[in-house]
Write a structure and sequence with these properties.
By secondary structure, the protein is mainly alpha-helical. It has three domains: 125 residues, 3-Layer(aba) Sandwich (Rossmann fold), CATH 3.40.50; 119 residues, Serine Threonine Protein Phosphatase 5, Tetratricopeptide repeat (Alpha Horseshoe), CATH 1.25.40; 171 residues, DNA Cyclobutane Dipyrimidine Photolyase, subunit A, domain 3. 48% of the residues lie in helices and 6% in strands. The protein contains 20 helices and five strands. The protein has a five-stranded parallel beta sheet, with helices on both faces. It is globular and about 75 Å long. The protein starts with a strand and ends with a helix. Bound molecules: flavin-adenine dinucleotide. The site of flavin-adenine dinucleotide has 28 residues, from helix 10, helix 12, helix 15 and helix 17.
């Protein structure tokens, strides 16, 4: 008798309910996984994350082999074809049951529903992605939370009551033969984001010893003041429960903490909040704004403007530094994500979906729920979003969070010679001779006001 486990956004051995319960049956277990290339591209996913997944699978195959679980590589190019392939595998091994952990995005959920309808065997699904299962927390009126603060209050209360106990390493399978890994390691990517379980947990543990300072370091893009665990969370090499559990071992009062630890816990809660939202309001994962009244806005469609943003040539140093960090590394600091997103959607008045797509294609931690949440927050179209009239000034942000210009100098070396006062807005006092750097593509004050006027006029039209 065989059990089949389909691994998707849960590329880990520990704290993996689907794998754990399949192995607990005591029967032979086969695991399978694979990117459906055409669907991947249709979802605007890119190479940085695909490479991380590839490397992770390389290690995962070996880690599963230690449990005598072979990891089969799925080759089907679309979600639809993947259903056939997975069911084919189940048929080939006369599997008794198929196990997987739920994915909350719309297309993924539809795929799983279609599979469950067609499957001639038992299908077991589990929840593994969030500290608290999406759809669980409701307001006093029984509706979902559209505002973060009360959601967090309930989330913290529940977390304090229950001690998170992640599932450990499951028992080994009986005697399945495991062939060598079908995934070749990309050594360069592995250097940047080591993806074997030991390295991932090393990074987690190193972070836990620094997390108490998070409230002081998290907004400074020039220092490694955040955990940089997002790529691992995005592909499920690490679970939120594992992070919270490890944190609780060192800091038992984590849910009452008002310093660095508590601030960090809040970010994990934001992740749950946005996942909750794509379950409760599925249209947000289908290219629609949360605030329906913002539909049909007449956005700026200039490709030239978009390209200057996308290539880090806007003439606003902090924006260009951030975009170049993204292009060079596949990752961007959170403060900078907010700055570039506001600049695109407000100062350039370009549709948030263009930015959302670009991030999905480039981010190694690309994650539909958090990315969509972040973009709609910045564009003032989302739930609990920044109000449309509160537009961040990128130069002020730069002066505040990168006061010496250290981050800017790292990514925009042509500004190296400028002192800390001038580096944030090199042309503020007029032209600078010999500087190989573009003048700002927009006047920040004028474009800010224009965006506010556009929003106001559009919202009035909707009334
Ligand atoms: C426009 C925009 C786009 C974004 N796109 C993504 C994305 O595609 N994938 C992604 O994982 N995060 C995204 N974020 C959220 C956040 O920027 C990243 O999670 C964070 O920068 C990752 O770095 P870290 O692991 O060092 O985070 P830390 O500061 O160490 O936070 C710990 C973890 O909490 C979660 N988290 C932190 N901030 C947020 C947040 N604002 N919303 C949701 N979860 C959060 C992440 O899982 C993160 O790994 C986006 C934010 C914005 C403003």
């Amino acid at each position: 008798m065989t059990q089949v486990v389909w691994l998707r956004s849960d590329l880990r051995v520990q704290d993996n309910p689907a794998l754990f319960h399949a192995l607990q049956t005591g029967e032979d277990v086969i695991a399978c996984t694979g990117i459906a290339q055409q669907t991947w591209q249709r979802h605007r996913r890119g190479d940085n994350q695909a490479t991380l997944i590839n490397n992770r699978c390389h290690h995962l195959a070996a880690e599963l082999a230690a449990l005598r679980v072979p990891l089969r590589r799925l080759a089907a190019p679309t979600f639809e074809a993947q259903i056939d392939e997975v069911l084919g595998l189940c048929g080939q091994f006369q599997a008794k049951a198929l196990h997987f952990n739920v994915q909350y995005e719309w297309d993924e959920a539809q795929r799983d529903q279609a599979l469950a309808q067609r499957a001639p065997l038992r299908v077991h699904s589990y929840h593994d992605q969030c500290a608290i299962r999406p759809g669980t927390l409701k307001t006093g009126q029984g509706s979902f939370y559209s505002v973060f603060t009360p959601f967090k209050r309930r989330w913290l209360a529940l977390q304090s009551e229950q001690m998170i106990q992640p599932l450990g390493t499951p028992p080994a399978s009986k005697a399945m033969a495991c062939t060598p890994s079908e995934w070749a390691l990309n050594a360069q990517a592995e250097q940047q984001w080591p993806s074997d379980t030991a390295s991932v947990h090393q990074r987690l543990n190193a972070w836990i010893s620094l997390a108490h300072r998070y409230d002081q370091t998290r907004d400074l893009p020039s220092v490694d003041g955040t955990s940089q665990l997002s790529p691992y969370l995005a592909i499920g090499a690490l679970s939120a429960q594992q992070i919270l559990h490890a944190l609780a071992m060192e800091h038992p009062g984590l849910y009452q903490d008002s310093g660095g630890i508590g601030t960090f816990v809040s970010e994990i809660c934001w992740r749950d909040f946005y996942r909750n939202l794509i379950v409760e309001v599925p249209r947000v994962s289908r290219d629609q704004p949360f605030k329906l009244e913002t539909r049909g806005m007449r956005w700026n469609t200039s490709e030239q403007d978009f390209d200057r943003w996308a290539t880090g040539q806007t003439g606003i140093p902090i924006v260009d530094a951030a975009m170049r960090q993204l292009l060079a590394t596949g990752w961007m600091h959170n403060r900078c994500r907010m700055i570039v997103a506001m600049f695109l959607t407000k100062n350039l008045f370009i549709h948030w979906r263009r930015g959302e797509d670009f991030f999905m294609r480039h981010l190694v931690d690309a994650d539909l729920a958090s990315n969509n949440g972040g973009w709609q927050w910045s564009a003032s179209t989302g739930t609990d979003a920044a109000p449309y009239f509160r537009v961040m000034n990128p130069v002020t942000q730069s002066e505040r969070f990168d006061p010496e210009g250290t981050y800017i100098r790292r990514w925009v070396p042509e500004l190296n010679a400028l002192g800390a006062k001038r580096i944030h807005a090199p042309f503020a006092q007029g032209p600078v001779h010999g500087l190989d750097y573009p003048a700002p593509m927009v006047d920040l004050k004028v474009s800010r006001q224009q965006a506010i006027d556009n929003f106001k006029a559009h919202l009035q039209e909707q009334k």
